[in-house]
Amino acid sequence: MLFPSPLARGTLVSRYKRFFAEVALDDGTEITAHCPNPGAMLGLNTPGLRAWVSRSDDPKRKLAHTLELVEADGGLVGVNTMHPNRLVAEALAADAIPELTGYATHRREVRYGENSRVDFLLEAPGRPPCWLEVNNVQPFYNARLKPDHKVWLEVKNVHLMRTTGLAEFPDCVAARSLKHLRELEAMIAEGDRAVVLFVVQRADCVAFSACRELDPAFAVGLDRAADAGVEVLIYTCDVAISGISISHRLPWSR
C-alpha cells in the first residue's frame, strides 16, 4: 500500500479527544490532523515524537491532514487503523498470506452474526476441509466443515509494544473485538472456517500476545475462540515513509 502523495514530517504536540492530533510540521506550520485510531495509543501519543501526516484535497473534509506514522522505539509505527483492511485486501489479491490462498472470491463487509459485518468472506466451491497449524495451538480439524465452505475473516490492527519485541492487542478494553470472536465461534459451529488476523503495523516485533493486563476478558475470549477452532494469524508489516506492506507471520505467545 503506497501513500498517494509524499507525507509531511513534523513533531507530535498532542493527541486529544481520541480523533485529533496537533502536529508542528517541519516547515513551522502547526496543524490539527485527524487521528484515525480509537485506541489508547500507549507509547505512541507522547508529545515530541516524530510524526508524519498525509494531506487530502477533498473539500468535504473538515481536516485536510491525517496522522499516519509516528517514530517510536527507533522505528516507524503505523497508527491509522483504517489501513489494515486495505493491506489485507492487497495481500489476499497477491496470494501473500499462504494460509488464505486459493479462494475464488474475497468479499468485504458481509453481514453476519448479531448486527455485525465481517471484514472479509473468502469463498471457493468444492474445496476440501482445511487444516491449519497456528503457533501454540494444536492443528484443529472441524468435522462439520462443509465441502463448499466459507472463510469468515476478521482483521485487527496492532501497534502496542510494551516489552521489546512483543506486539500486544488490545491497548484498551475491546468489547467489540470480543463480540467478533464470539461471532466467529458461531461460524465454526455452522461448519465454516473462521480466522482472526492481527496486522502489526510495525517491524520491530518478533512475537504476539493478547494483552491480559489491559483487557483480560479479550485474552480469555481469544483463548476460547482458538480452542473452538477459530484460527489465529499474526502478520507483521514493513513500514516506510512511502507506504506499508504485509511482511511475514509472527508466533502467538499464548
Layout of secondary structure:
Layout: E1 8-16, E2 20-25, E3 30-34, E4 50-55, E5 65-72, E6 75-78, H1 83-93, E7 105-112, E8 116-123, E9 150-158, E10 160-163, E11 166-169, H2 175-189, E12 193-200, E13 207-210, H3 216-228, E14 231-239, E15 244-249
Helix pairs in contact: 2-3
Overview of the structural elements:
The structure is a single chain. The protein has 254 residues and is an alpha+beta fold. The chain has two domains: 8-78, OB fold (Dihydrolipoamide Acetyltransferase, E2P) (Beta Barrel), CATH 2.40.50; 83-249, 3-Layer(aba) Sandwich (Trna Endonuclease, Chain: A, domain 1). The protein contains three helices and 15 strands. It has helices at residues 83-93, 175-189, 216-228; strands at residues 8-16, 20-25, 30-34, 50-55, 65-72, 75-78, 105-112, 116-123, 150-158, 160-163, 166-169, 193-200, 207-210, 231-239, 244-249. The two termini are 30 Å apart.
Instruction: Quote the average pLDDT.
Output: 88
For the biggest β-sheet, the strand order reads 3-2-1-4-5-6
Using only CA atoms, what is the Rg?
Answer: 19 Å
Tell me the β content.
Answer: 35-45%
SS element count, helices:
3
The CATH class designation of the largest domain is: Alpha Beta
CATH topology of the largest domain: Trna Endonuclease, Chain: A, domain 1
Gross geometry: globular
Structural class: alpha+beta
* Architecture (CATH level 2) name of the largest domain: 3-Layer(aba) Sandwich
**Low-pLDDT runs:** 128-145
Q: Determine the fraction of residues in helical runs and give it as a percent range.
A: 10-25%
The counted number of beta strands is 15
